[in-house]
Amino acid sequence: MIRFASFLTLVLLAFAAPAAAQLSVDVTDDSGSASLKIAVPALPTSQSVSTPAGTTDELGVKIAQVIADDLRNSGLFAPTGPEGTRTIAMTEVMAPNYPSWGGYEALVQGFVRSAGGESDITVGCYLYDIALTTELDRKGYVVAPRDWRRAAHKCADAIYARLSGESPFFDSRIAYIAESGSKERRVKRLAIMDSDGANHRFITNGQAIALSPRFSPDYGSLLYVSYVQDRVRIFVYDIGTGKQRLVTESTNPTFAPRWSPDGRSILFSMAIAGNTDIYRVPAGGGVPVRLTSSPGIDVGGSYSPDGSKIVFESDRSGSQQIYVMNADGSGQQRISHGGGRYATPEWSPRGDLIAFTKMAGDFNIAVMTPDGGNERVLTRGWQDEAPTWSPNGRVLQFFRTSQGSSGVAQVWQVDLTGVNERRIPTPLSGSDPAWGPLLP
Amino acid sequence: MTLIATPLARTLMMASAFIALSACSKKAPEELPPAPVETARPAETAPVATTPTGPVKGSQEDFLASVAADKIYFDTDKYDVDAQDQDVLRSQAQWLAANPAAKVTVEGHADERGTRDYNLALGERRANAAKNYLASLGVDPARITTISYGKERPAALGSDEAAWAQNRRAVTVTVQ
């Protein structure tokens, strides 16, 4: 497991004066051409030494590549990574040769330093405005050698945040279900990975169906549904110890687990004599409190970022629709009125939008405001399902299932413009992605 | 089918019976496979035939040979038991009355054109609708367990209405 606690951020210098910065990217630009030209040459090292993750020379190339990939995948940048840029000297890192970068609008430079062996590496990260010949930002990160990708994601996050004005999101992780085998007997395993698909790890072995995982807000544990012993029950899996326990002791099936934003409570759905309602239980165990009581199916649920409200789905009106209630279950009110069926609502970490699955013919990913207004459909697959928000509320992952006897599911990503859509690379097929918060 | 066992056939039958029993074991350490019963063919769950003339009373094979059907079907997003379903469940209730020691699990399923969590809830509704009807015919509810597979275990693999209609089902399976 990654040693998060060893991760220190060193702010080496305050920001350059914001007034001088004209360079920016706009996350709401849906022209599809909002691509800022940015060069990311390999990070030089003053002395190449060996680490368990490779030499500092090699790490300088790999870190620049991850930074370039992150920026490209955000859809806002047209980066040129280490393969397309010249090698820079250590002396250039803090004194860029601006005229030599004339084809670019921005430049990322940095360095990798290590005392060798298992000792931590220091990664410097500098952002320059080419036209204004000014420094826009600088950051430094100290990480264990095996966590070098986190330093790269942190640097990309700093650049993204500085130029877009948005909160960062690259340095985060995804829990999902890895799928293999035929459609009628699909093997479904709990797995976790970085937000870009790297550092992939299987958690369960696939003997029992695993469904609908959720990272705890501190990344310490995972909620998921397992069919172990031919029952449908929610387990809490401790990532550090590998041990797991039931969320609640019940003879009834429990499913659709969700964390509260502070990690202190867990929402779950439980069917009693066929009728499913939503319950809340303390994360450490305790007596569940029932929040819904309609004779229809009430299922799922997602807290508003401040924890005061819950958005959930119910078919009490005769078809699946989206409702909002107070966190204690009071004040239940339908918010979806656009026609078709609505499912899997997820409240944005920014609080401004709710993402959901819209079923009107095909299944598509869509967003609306918490009062049900301004509905926008973002994807056009045959069956796109179950959106999950990036930590900054600007990007969604979901899964897309193909038609027919193969019925393969894959994890996809789309930004709020609906323009920048791409598949997340996974070793097997994948479904039920759940994006965690920014890593601590 | 015939159960007259040639030596080879008898060996195969014992092997498959062993596999079926292993799969149903409740003693596996960490994780168990999901209920494999819906795909179990009669020969797989039958113990080695003691008589070549028919299934063992109370067995899954006996159940399948005795009832009108082991499954009922539902309309999209529906879970009501219609007249045809009632006939099927009545035949199941009669078999359960004739085999008072037998227990069953009703598996509820949904088609793929629904979201995962909702389909789990829908499968629960369907399994319980079948269970409730069996109970209304006098079967002790304690003899009936339910489990929802949502859209996780389709019987038909196509992505068309014909396949979906086969997948919206509640399947009664004997517990051995």
From TrEMBL, chain A:
Q: Report domain TolB N-terminal positions.
A: 31-135
Q: Which keywords does UniProt give here?
A: Cell cycle, Cell division, Periplasm, Signal
What domain of life is recorded for the organism? Answer: Bacteria
Q: Which InterPro entries match?
A: 6-blade_b-propeller_TolB-like, Tol-Pal_TolB, TolB_N, WD40
Task: Give the signal sequence positions.
Answer: 1-21
* GO CC terms of this entry: periplasmic space
Whether Cell cycle counts among this entry's keywords is yes
Q: Where in the cell is it found?
A: Periplasm
* Pfam families in the record: PD40 (PF07676), TolB_N (PF04052)
Which terms under GO biological process does the entry name?
cell division; protein import
The record's principal subcellular location, in a coarse class, is periplasm
Entries under SUPFAM superfamilies matching the protein:
TolB, N-terminal domain, Tricorn protease N-terminal domain
Q: How does it assemble?
A: The Tol-Pal system is composed of five core proteins: the inner membrane proteins TolA, TolQ and TolR, the periplasmic protein TolB and the outer membrane protein Pal. They form a network linking the inner and outer membranes and the peptidoglycan layer.
**Function (record text):** Part of the Tol-Pal system, which plays a role in outer membrane invagination during cell division and is important for maintaining outer membrane integrity.
Q: Which family does it belong to?
A: Belongs to the TolB family.
Q: What is this protein called?
A: Tol-Pal system protein TolB
Q: Please name the source species.
A: Sphingobium fluviale
